Amino acid sequence: MGHGKMPDSPWSVPQRGFAPRSLWRVGWRYLLHHVWQSVLMVLGITLGVAVVVAVDLANASATRAFDYSTDAVVGRATHHITAGPQGLDESAYVSLRRQGVVRAAAPIVTEYVSSPQLGGRPLQLLGIDPFAESPFRNYLWAEAGAPIAGLTDLLTRHGAIVLSSEVAARYGLAEGASLTLEVGGYERPAFIAGLLEPADSLSQRALDGILLADIATAQELTGRIGRLDRIDLILPEGETAQLDRITHLLPQGARVLPVEARTGTVKEMTAAFRLNLLALSLLALVVGMFLIYNTMTFSVVQRRSLFGTLRCLGVTRREVFSLVVSEALIVGVLGSILGLGLGIVMGQGAVNMVTQTINDLFFVVTVQGVEIPASSLVKGALLGVIATAIAAALPAWEAASVPPRAALSRSGLETKARHAVAWVAFGGLFLGIVGAGLLALPTRGLTSSLGSTFAVVVGFAMLTPLTTILLMRGAMPLLGRAWGVLGRMAPRNVVNALSRTAIAVAALMVAVSVTIGVSLMIGSFRYTVVAWLDQVLMGDVYVSAPSLTSSQATTPLDPGVLDIIDEWPGIARVDTLRTATVESPDGPVSVFGVQNPDFGERPFLSADGPPEAIWQAMQSGAAVVSEPYANRTGLSQRGGAVTLHTDQGPREFPIAGIYYDYVSSQGTVSLSLDTYRQFWNDDALTAVALRLSPGTGVDAVVRNLQAALAPVQRVFVRPNRTLRDEALVIFDRTFAITSALQLLATVVAFIGVLSALLSLQLEKQRELGILRAVGLTVRQLWGLVILETGLMGTVAGLLAMPTGFVLSLILIYVINRRSFGWTLQMHVEPAPFILALAVAVVAAILAGIYPAHRLGKMLTAEALRYE
Description:
Elements: H1 20-33, H2 35-74, E1 79-82, E2 88-89, H3 91-99, E3 105-113, E4 123-128, H4 134-137, H5 148-156, E5 160-164, H6 165-170, E6 178-183, E7 186-196, H7 201-207, E8 210-214, H8 215-222, E9 227-228, E10 230-233, H9 240-249, E11 255-258, H10 259-269, H11 271-302, H12 304-312, H13 317-361, H14 374-401, H15 404-407, H16 412-440, H17 446-461, H18 464-483, H19 485-496, H20 498-536, E12 541-544, H21 559-566, E13 571-582, E14 589-595, E15 604-607, H22 611-619, E16 623-626, H23 627-633, E17 641-646, E18 649-659, E19 668-672, H24 673-679, E20 687-692, H25 698-709, E21 716-719, H26 720-734, H27 736-763, H28 765-773, H29 778-820, H30 830-857, H31 860-865
Parallel strand pairs: 4-8, 5-7, 14-19, 16-18
Antiparallel strand pairs: 1-10, 1-11, 2-9, 3-4, 3-10, 5-8, 6-7, 12-20, 12-21, 13-14, 13-20, 15-18, 16-19, 17-18
Helix pairs in contact: 1-13, 2-7, 2-11, 2-13, 2-14, 2-27, 11-14, 11-20, 11-27, 13-14, 16-17, 17-20, 17-29, 18-19, 18-20, 18-29, 19-29, 20-26, 20-27, 20-29, 20-30, 27-30, 29-30
């Protein structure tokens, strides 16, 4: 060969050498000959992509379900006419029609109902005027083409409803079938007057959770005779004069609001929840990137001599770089494709969890199946491929940048890795400090907060090499005294292979630290909620009507129920509550009208005086607001006022205090019941709390009162302890998907450790063969491998402890506060730390069993020949 100078630039064009096709054959042959290594890489990306896709599908399905139901109910309306909690008098609609100020107007009565014949799931009963519907929801009526017989029955017979033919077929129902509707604790008879045939798939999805009834029938079923929930309008854009004329004709307390103002506010409720889930799901992909990086690094180390030979033969750095990245991309594409399929399967379970949480905390949304938008699949596939490319870039650069002579030396990489330990640790400290500084900035941006949190976690991960070296040096004397030569060899081997072991330990550490951080956050949240419930649940027995809308009941109690309670023996005191949703300049607000002199004794973030003064201020017309509401609207802890749209027009209520509350992330406004009734024409009550006389048995009161109230209205009569338990059940259900995502991230990390150990032990076959030749037994070989893996798991578990604790502080005091607006009390228990250390050690040891078994079966001569 000639002695021409090798190209110095990484991207110089070769004058001679291997054709690209030959290089691709080299890479493809390597993947086929190392099937286990390729499978582990594919599996890591598959799980990472599957988790992201499943959560994205769940979020998209829940969001689309809300959009479908909103479109079905809102239709083409541009504005709503609404009033207070009792709705509008139907005469307002008659007046608008007679005056002729608006051409397109439609009255609406709507309520969530359920039926045992329809699966017992929440359904939206929509009361409409068929003759006014065409401009608004013609795909529900005109395009569906309901039969004339069905239309006649709908208008003339009591209890007549219409539903989608697809829903009827799902439950084996036909036209004329009888139904029992459960509406606000009452059972109402109904029947199917007709079936709608959806014109397209969009209409089918929109009608999936809808029952249609004539407006008069809906009023009868819901007990709102003569009342409307709203009037839908279609107004030309920019028609302020017409809007003014309509407003002038409305009764006092009625308002005209654009549709977007209400639906936009409701959709914003779940934005933080869905973003938090997506961020947690990305963790599995990040851990999968550690796996890809570790495996690709090993593949580069394993072929350093090959790359050196190729470079000597004229292959350029660019071609070597492209070869390694192309191999990774093949793995990434295959893993992403498999991840999409697994993500769709997992999506159904995730949909159920997400939907249940939204129903518990925000609003009713029903999802019968997983929506599979192309955007979710494209997003998941791109994330998988891009994550693979990013993870493989550094090993590829290492393969391409090493001079040929150094590439032929197997010790070069480890020497470089040990020299870089201090710089990596310094970079980790810098990244962690930057992330902490960004978190300290006074901003409500959740995306930046999550990005800063990732920076802090990655900063801790970059401390892994230095921590591994320090701990192994400290462990060497102790292990040497306990296990002799093997005890000194194990920590030395971990340090000697730092370029691989550090990455595997970092991946396991990140997964375990998230387990610690999230466990501490959930534990602190639960501890806070339990303490809060002990302070706010002051009654002995609670009575409320069933509600399908969310964890906040808004269904009124029947007056007959209240009459029975007032005369019930053994009751010393009755505290009453009215929960209603009213409009405000900041959108819909949950308002509590309370009659409870001890209301001021609940925990307050800030208050104008002692508990007695707070209640006196409320009786004088002041309001108290929850911490999430104050954070969402930017209220200060002292002074300020809240504006609400009352039946007498907009009214400003001074704020006497801000109280801790964990019922709603949107927040609540509380007034005395007298003040509430002064400004809203609403005498209904939502719930009552009973204080029993001394010596009165709680269980007997609950049992007998439940039986006495059943003929009047189906209500919940629950003792204090039962209400607390049900609240905690909802709490635990809320975090079920979080725990599932934690587990998946740990599984991905376990696969990463297994991959690293298999790679490491394979590379050390010749060394272990020499040890076998000089007398190392199979049992001692097992002990050496298990000891090494146990040390790696111990390092991961120990470093995960401070990382998880810092992460819990961020989750509790930054992420949760910015996401949901509430303050949690930090509650630290040793169990999450002990469990996390045990999980890390056990996962590492389990990952070492197969490599130890494989090496124990290998013949000594075969191991000595390995190079």
